[in-house]
Structure formats: C-alpha cells, structure tokens
Design brief:
Layout: H1 2-16, E1 26-31, H2 36-45, E2 50-55, H3 61-72, E3 76-81, E4 99-101, E5 111-115, E6 119-123, H4 129-133, E7 137-143, H5 146-159, H6 170-174, H7 177-184
Parallel strand pairs: 2-3, 3-4
Antiparallel strand pairs: 1-7, 2-5, 5-6, 6-7
Helix pairs in contact: 2-3
C-alpha cells in the first residue's frame, strides 16, 4: 500500500509541474473591455531572442518601453513602420538600427508582430494608447506557431510589401528613417 501511495503522489507531482498539453493556442482579446496595452506589454516582455513588428502607428509609450527594454536585454528588435503615420521616433532612438520605413505606396495597415518565431500577434488594434485601451478593437494571439510566426516577417513585409529590398543590413533597416524625421521636423 505505501508503494502504491508513493507512485500516485509521484504522478500527481509530475502532473502539477507539467504544462497542460491541451492549452488553447489561440487567444482573442477585446478593447475597451480589456486593456490590450497590458497584453502587448506582457507579450513583448516574454521575448528572448527576436521581435519582428509591423505597425501602421506606433505611439504607445508602454509598448515602446517594452521594445526598448527587450533591446537592452539583447533581443533583436526589428520594426517596419508606415511612413504616412506618426510614430514616437524620439522614444525609439535606442532601437533605431532595427527600424525601417515601408517604401511609398499603399498603406501598410498591419498591426502585427512575431516573438521568437513562436508567437504571432495580429488584429485591428493600432499600437497607440487609444487603439489599445479606448476603441473597439481586437488582438489575436497565436502561440506555438513556429512555422507561421517565423515566416511572418519575410512573407508579409520583405516579399509582399518591400520585395524589391533584399538585404537586411543595418543600412537597409534605417534607410528612410532620417527622411521621415526630416519631413516631420
């Protein structure tokens, strides 16, 4: 009997320290009922190796602070921004080597990012205080999507939106950033 009890206790301990295998890989969050800024900040803080982000508008300070903090922790942070919209470029100076402006053309209305090639976040919420906290918006988080998340940046930005730019050198990432700063004054 004591052996049987020990085996049961061991199995229970193993189950308690094992992540559930059937966890839902898709989360959907809605503003303004939920503060999407908190969701984004938590996701960005979880990054260990890289963040690939596309944004129509990037002005939310806590989100920007999370990107800068990730950069300081050694995470590669790469951003592609739409040049027609305002961005908090002054707060992004630490990650400016990882910023690229989309070439002129149709709006890049994406509000998406990939974390470590394992998490993909997309949805209608701009990365602005009002978009994340006040407007009727959603974000969808897909976890454990290594093939989809790792292909996100190449597929949607480099090939379809910026296909004529093949390299990812520091110069190609920052090309256009000074022009946008100059144009905005």
């Amino acid at each position: 009997m004591p052996l049987r009890l020990s085996v049961v206790a061991g199995l229970l301990a193993l189950i308690a320290f094992t992540a559930p295998a059937t966890a839902d890989p898709v989360e959907v969050h809605y503003a303004p009922v939920e503060n999407l800024e908190r969701v984004d900040v938590a996701l960005l803080q979880s990054a260990r190796s890289k963040i690939d982000l596309t944004a129509f508008s990037l002005t939310d300070w806590p989100v920007i602070d999370a990107l800068v903090d990730a950069h300081r922790r050694g995470v590669v942070v790469r951003l592609v921004l739409d040049p027609s919209e305002r961005h908090a470029l002054d707060r992004l100076t630490e990650v400016s080597d990882g910023i690229r402006m989309k070439p002129p053309g149709p709006y890049m209305h994406l509000k998406s990012y990939s974390i470590d090639g394992l998490v993909l976040r997309s949805g209608s919420a701009n990365l602005t205080a009002s978009g994340l906290k006040q407007q009727d918006n959603d974000i969808i988080v897909i976890c454990g999507t290594a093939p989809q998340a790792s292909a996100f940046f190449r597929r949607f930005i480099l090939r379809e939106r910026c296909g004529h730019m093949s390299g990812l050198s520091t110069r190609s990432w920052t090309a256009g950033l000074d022009e946008v700063r100059d144009a905005r004054g």
